């Protein structure tokens, strides 16, 4: 892992230069262009925060409504009803106080207050029932909201074109958006609770306003400072998290490297323990400094708001005492006002806390929604032609002056390549590492779109074809394949998920890939789970996994089969059996073969030699050997190694 000595930038590392000792910092910790703008958005003024609340709460309600209408109605209705009960409760409390502080014998005053006391008991019971209803409805609503939000996220991540993962900051953008699910739940819950606080506050405000308008003004003055401090603290916390997103991803990677079964062998054989622990200490030191800095800022902000609020609250009690002593309000009204002030304080505190929660969660939700919009830029283009399906079996595939340039690369990975393949041919792409073979194959497979040029399937440009229909006609067996944690049978049947899995067809594909005997030797045969981290799961060697992957390709039985280094991990017997089966496809199926072992492409109908992204030679094996060139040099070099 390369390291560079740099001065940490505030947006990426957090601590100021006098708080962070000189150290070697990973390049990933430097501020990226997108972090600066995102952090500025996170540090918006409180007025901007409040301006966003209607949008955020409206979106929360819309998401909840789509997820479960009945439970959304229950939450909203019961919350409003609970607030209305609070109003009646305050009025009943005032009536009780009026009767108790009235004139006459004590028994008579208690009897006069009894109806209001019974009303208070009834209201408390109803509010308790409503709270249970809200809690039950929210518990059922939460998983549905989370499922809906995460489904949106996965729909976007699984639909974007492959080049999306080459784009700068896409992974970080995706990582931030992945927090949308739980935070959408939090925003929905906070919106419901804020509604309850708002209804309660309205009821209390009306009561205080009736007693004396000055008390309402004083109460607002006492509550606004801590409310502002809470909102500001939440904004600071999100800003810190946003600026630390790259560092947090690096920490997650380091944790997996230090405590993962797959990395454990190399960690020990290369003695990487001290190196990785050093990297962890380096990143965590910067993260800890940022968290300490954040804690200081949040503490100061909260303490300042609480101090101002406390002073203002003292003013409320002084004002109330002055009004009482001057005879401008009766004792019963003063006591009611005390109760109302406490209720208002609780309601405002609840409302402020929930608004802060809405805003904090809203940051993450905005990242989620923004990612969904940005992901559309990477989605496959929808063809405008009505006939978007590939017409008939593959008869001819053409690559016309195709070029592909990766982001931030000066030279093209594929540079103005043209070739044609007819049905039934076996075509080989050969060349040294980095010559562009796999990139060209990815373009032919429809996984990557050319920067320039065009690819045609039966004379129809790829961009005019339905992407799903096109990829259904093509099967790609990758060298860097994914080890899917499913059974052996499922791993093979995944090659054609549109049809019902067929055990005879699965076994036939496994035999063609020389995987049948390997699978039968597993504890549960084809029903063995291929992942050691699960109970009764099994490990496979690299060569065994490569056979499973090849079997998946044979199971699909597509018009075009692309095999990228299909035998790199196979033993000689398995490799020979695999290529015998591939040679049997000639004249029947169309195959594109990518390999460094040139002896395996001698029987190809056409061999294309790539170098630095360009197509430099083409012909049959015999034709290429007769002409001094790159293929002849590579083949002679490999042959000499076998001859000793």
What does this structure look like?
This protein has 21 helices and ten strands. By secondary structure, the protein is an alpha/beta fold. The protein has four domains: 48-211 and 358-374; 213-328; 390-473 and 560-573 and 586-644, P-loop containing nucleotide triphosphate hydrolases (Rossmann fold, 3-Layer(aba) Sandwich), CATH 3.40.50; 481-557, P-loop containing nucleotide triphosphate hydrolases (Rossmann fold). The strands form two sheets. A six-stranded mixed beta sheet has the order 6-7-8-3-9-10, with helices on both faces. α8 runs parallel beside α12. The longest helix is centred in the N-terminal third of the chain and has 54 residues, at 106-159. 37% of the residues are buried.
Alpha-carbon Rg, integer: 35 Å
Separate helix tally = 21
Span of the ends, CA to CA: 37 Å
The average pLDDT score comes to: 79
Largest sheet: 6 strands, mixed
Number of domains: 4
User: Which descriptor suits the 3D outline?
Assistant: elongated
Strand order of the largest sheet: 6-7-8-3-9-10
Transmembrane segments: 73-92, 112-134, 194-222, 303-325
Region (Disordered): 1-24
Biased composition (Polar residues): 14-23
Main location: membrane
